[in-house]
């Protein structure tokens, strides 16, 4: 199981590194999630191997060489890429899917908590780990076709009307359901470099042919909307006091 073995080894290395770092509650929670993932994947691989063994044994007892060869080929494919044949009982791939979902959720939570703590470097590191983890999955190619998969980071410099200077803006996609998405955004809406004029908030929206379209609410500022117009993200903030801000930026995708 070359591909899954590489994935498992990578997770264990990350776990060891986490245990050697200074105390970090976010990293500790992710460490526990990785251990749980490794345990679940061992059970998943054991269930798959037992299913292959049972199927091959039955084919041998029936003297069905064609089926024996087929099962051997399917087993080799599983060991090389992690892909299972269509005939596999649904409960087996569901084990892996549940384990993948749980670990991805743990990574997404780590990203969010680091962003809240304003540790952007740590958040970026978690995103890299998550992308590496996704690359080991049999459905990685399907993920790659999506322009905005979970874990996408968009960042840019925003120009507000009536407010001089560039202001940083960051979006992280944390959930996807069809064309819908949820995420977190970090907005600098005051004088550039003023830490008191920054906000982290949840956003909810959809993926359109042009890009992202979403809404959110910034505590103390009000409603914020964003939508793509000719490759530029146009952002409008309607303050609770009736005032508005609007601006646009070109994102770079990390």
UniProtKB/TrEMBL annotation:
Leader sequence residues: 1-20
Organism this protein belongs to: Frigoriglobus tundricola
Keywords noted in UniProt: Signal
Protein name (database record): Lipoprotein
């Amino acid at each position: 199981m070359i591909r899954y073995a590489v994935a498992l080894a990578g997770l264990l290395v990350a776990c060891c590194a986490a245990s050697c770092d200074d105390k970090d509650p976010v990293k500790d929670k992710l460490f526990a999630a990785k251990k749980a993932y490794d345990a679940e994947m061992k059970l998943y691989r054991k269930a798959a191997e037992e299913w292959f063994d049972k199927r091959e044994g039955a084919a041998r007892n029936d003297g069905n060489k064609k089926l024996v060869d087929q099962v051997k080929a399917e087993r080799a494919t599983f060991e090389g890429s992690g892909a299972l044949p269509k005939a596999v009982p649904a409960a087996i791939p569901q084990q892996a899917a549940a384990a993948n979902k749980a670990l991805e959720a743990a990574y997404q939570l780590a990203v969010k908590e680091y962003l809240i703590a304003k540790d952007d470097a740590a958040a970026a590191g978690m995103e890299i780990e998550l992308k590496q983890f996704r690359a080991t999955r049999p459905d990685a190619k399907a993920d790659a076709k999506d322009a905005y998969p979970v874990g996408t980071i968009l960042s840019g410099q925003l120009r507000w009307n009536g407010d001089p200077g560039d202001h940083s803006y960051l979006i992280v996609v944390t959930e996807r359901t069809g064309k819908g998405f949820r995420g977190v955004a970090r907005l600098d809406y005051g004088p550039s470099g003023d830490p008191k004029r920054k906000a982290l908030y949840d956003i909810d929206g959809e993926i359109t042919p042009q890009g992202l379209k979403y809404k959110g609410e910034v505590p103390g500022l009000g409603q914020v909307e964003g939508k793509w117009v000719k490759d530029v993200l146009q952002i409008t903030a309607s303050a609770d006091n009736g005032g508005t801000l609007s601006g646009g930026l070109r994102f770079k995708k990390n």
